[in-house]
Specification:
mainly alpha; 2 domains; Rna Polymerase Sigma Factor, Chain: A; about 180 residues; Arc Repressor Mutant, subunit A
């Protein structure tokens, strides 16, 4: 969707059009879900935070500046909610929920043995990602899941670009260390 169409939807929402907000949700919900799931690794918590973030954004839409893109604003709301959630939760949820309906990483073209190997690899990767310190995980998720460039990550997280570079390097090193038995 181009900025002009998105801006028209936001203006409509600011004027009370709930249907327009439904369109904004449909446009951004999958991307936001991937981003938050990458941070949390919990299907249920991600669903709750994404839904809560859309509600908070709707309640604050009158304050939204139309000169900016909607998704970064929405993603910041969701990221802050995810960080608050992680601070409240001391235990991690089971990664078995990854294979719930609509989020099954197994390729149907693979044979039974390949599916087991693939699902185990995905599970180990997710476990390694969730055990990574948040300051490294957040830049890794933004770079590799959201496909943001270093400058955008730096602006989004309000850190210097050099810090983004070093954190991505450390995140990759962390994952290589955790997954060295698979490499």
């Amino acid at each position: 969707m181009n900025r002009s169409n998105e801006r028209q939807l936001i203006e409509a929402v600011q004027n009370g059009d709930k249907v327009a907000y439904g369109k904004l949700i449909r446009i951004h919900q999958k991307r936001l879900f991937r981003f938050i799931y990458g941070l949390l690794g919990s299907f249920d918590a991600t669903e709750d935070i994404v839904q809560d973030s859309f509600v908070k954004a709707y309640n604050s839409i009158d304050k939204f500046n139309l000169e900016f893109a909607f998704y970064p604003w929405l993603a910041t709301i969701a990221k802050n909610r995810a960080f608050n959630y992680m601070q409240r939760e001391e235990k991690k949820e089971s990664l078995d929920k990854v294979s719930e309906i609509g989020f099954n990483p197994i390729d149907p073209e693979l044979g039974p043995l390949e599916q087991v190997i693939d699902s185990e690899g995905q599970k180990k990767f997710n476990e390694a990602l969730q055990s990574m310190p948040m300051k490294y995980r957040s830049v890794f998720v933004l770079r590799h899941f959201e496909r943001m460039d270093y400058a955008a990550i730096a602006s989004y997280l309000k850190i210097p670009p050099g810090t983004v570079d070093s954190r991505i390097f450390r995140a990759r090193q962390f994952l290589m260390d955790k997954l060295k038995d698979m490499l």
